[in-house]
DNA sequence: TCCAGGTTGTACTGATCAGTACATCAGCGC
DNA sequence: GCGCTGATGTACTGATCAGTACAACCTGGA
C-alpha cells in the first residue's frame, strides 16, 4: 500500500468512526461514509472486503482514541494515579462538541449479539482493562494492594462502573453519573488497599 | 379499539420487542416484525403512525418487563431487601434462552444521539430509578440511611453500576461482571447507612 | 337486515442499501 | 519514454427499506 492509499484508507476509517460514533453502525451507510470522506466506492472495496471489515477497523480506531485520551492509564503506579486517571476521563467528556458517550459502549448494544463483533469488542475491552490490571498488579507487588486481591476481576468491575456511568451520562448528556460511578469504582479499589 | 385490535397491536409490539432486543432497532425492519407477528402492513400503520412510534411502544414494554422481573424493587424497605433485589436481577440473567443484556441499555448506544429517543429512554430509566430512590427515602426516614445522603443521586449511581455490569456481561455472556458491579453498588449504598 | 367503524390483505412506490463491473488514472522502477 | 501495479471514477444490479393506496372484510348496534 502506497502512502497515498494509506491516506485514503485512513480518511475512510476516520469518517466511518465519526459517523458510527454519533449515529450508530446500521444508520451509517457505506455511501454516507464515502461522501463524508470524499472517497469513491472503488476505494472502499479496494481496502475493505465489506462493511463488516470497515467496522472492525473502526472498533480498533475507537480503542486507540480512548487510550490516547487517558495517558495515565499506562502509568498507574500509585493510588493517586487512579484519581488522575478518573480526572482524565471526566475531562474528555466535559469537553463540548461531541456527545458524551463511549464509542465502544455504543456498539455493545447494537452489535453485541453478533458473536463475531462481540468477540472484537471483548478483545478491545480486555486491552483497555489490561492496563488497569497492570497498574493493580504493580500496586500489589509494592504491597499497596492486598495480596489476595484479584487484579483482573477488579479491573473488570472498574470497567463496568466506567461503562455504566458513561451510558447514563450519554442518555442524560450530563457527566454527573459518570463522575459518581468513577468515584465509587476507585473507592472500591482503595478498599482493597493493603 | 376492540379486543381483537388490541390483540393484534400487542402481537406487533411483542414481536418488535423480541427482535429489537436481539438484533437492534435498525436491523429490525417493519416487514420482519410483521412476518414474525403474523400481522399485515395495514395493521402496523393502523396502530402506529410510523416505525418511531412502534419503538416508543417497545421501550415502554421493555420497562414493564424489567420491573416485572424484579418485584422486590417496589418493596425496598430494609437493607436486606437490596440484597434480594440484586439476586432477582442476577437470576433473570442466569436463566438461559436469551442473551444477557438490558433491553433499554441496548438501545442507549444505537439511539442515544437521537434527542427524541434519548428523552424516552431517560424517562424509562428515571422510572426505574424512582423505585430505588423511594426505597432509600424510606430507609432514611427510618434512620437507617444518613440524613445527608441524596437518594436520587445514590439511585442514579446504583443504576450506572447495574447498566455497566450488564454491558460487560452482555459482551462476555457471563454474569460475573454484573454480579461484581451489583455487589459494589450495594456496598456503596450500605456505606451511607446511618 | 343493514350499515358504520374498526379491521385486514395485497399490491404498489420511490428511496436507499451493500456490493460489483469495468474502464481509467497516477506514479515508480526500468 | 514504457509498462506494471496500485489507486480511482462512475455506472450499474438486485435486494430491502419505510410508507401508501385501496378494496374488502368482519362485527356490533339500530
How do you describe this structure in short?
The structure is a homodimer of 194-residue chains. Chain A is mainly α.
Provide tags for this entry:
194 residues; homodimer; 9 helices; 74% helix; mainly alpha; DNA-binding
| Multimer state | homodimer
What number is the mean pLDDT of chain A? 97
The termini of chain A sit apart by: 52 Å
Q: What letter string, H or E per element, gives the SSE order of chain A?
A: HHHHHHHHH
How would you explain this protein's 3D organization?
The structure is a homodimer of 194-residue chains. With 194 residues, chain A is mainly alpha-helical. In chain A, 74% of the residues lie in helices and 0% in strands. The first copy, chain A, has nine helices and no strands. Chain A has helices spanning 3-23, 30-37, 41-47, 51-69, 79-94, 103-111, 115-141, 151-172, 176-190. At the A-B interface, α6, α7, α8 and α9 of A face α6, α7, α8 and α9 of B. The structure holds a DNA duplex (30 and 30 nucleotides).
